[in-house]
Amino acid sequence: MSIGWSEIIVILLVVLLVFGSKRIPELARALGRASHEFKKAKENILHEGEDLMNEAEHAAAAEDAAAENQDKKAQG
Q1: Cβ pair 55, 47 in contact under 8 A
Q2: How confident is the model at residue 35, as a pLDDT?
Q3: Which end of the chain is more exposed for a tag (fewer CB within 10 A), N or C?
Q4: Of residues 15 and 40, which shows the higher confidence score?
Q5: Structural domain range at position 38
Q6: Calpha distance 53→57 (Å, rounded)
Q7: How far apart are CA 42 and CA 45, in angstroms?
Q8: CA–CA separation, 32 vs 21, rounded Å?
Q9: From CA 14, how far away is CA 18, in angstroms rounded?
């Protein structure tokens, strides 16, 4: 069930009638800005997740190294 060209034209005509020709560019600009902000926020969340994973890996590596040093001291 996809939208055909006739349905798209009807939707565009309804939008034109409801908002008028002066408001449509403003709405398009607002949608563009909202889309940009959403993408920027998504990228920030991804980077924060990567940073947290890197920090966790470094902490785990440090704990492993400390445990190995304790084992060597206990054996030696």
Answers
A1: no
A2: 95
A3: N
A4: 40
A5: 1-76
A6: 6
A7: 5
A8: 18
A9: 6
Q: How far is CA 21 from CA 7, 31, 32, in A?
A: 20, 16, 18
Cα separation, 64 vs 76, in Å, equals 18
The half-sphere exposure of 75 on its side-chain side, counting CA atoms within 13 A, is 6
Report the first-to-last Cα separation within the chain, whole angstroms: 73
Q: Are 16 and 24 in contact (CB under 8 A)?
A: yes
**Long-range pairs, 28-31, Cβ under 8 A, ≥24:** none
Q: Is the pTM of this model over 0.90?
A: no
Residue 76 predicted with pLDDT over 80: no
- What is the number of structural domains in the chain? 1
Q: Which two tokens stand for residue 27?
A: 């709405």
Distance CA 18, CA 10 (A): 12
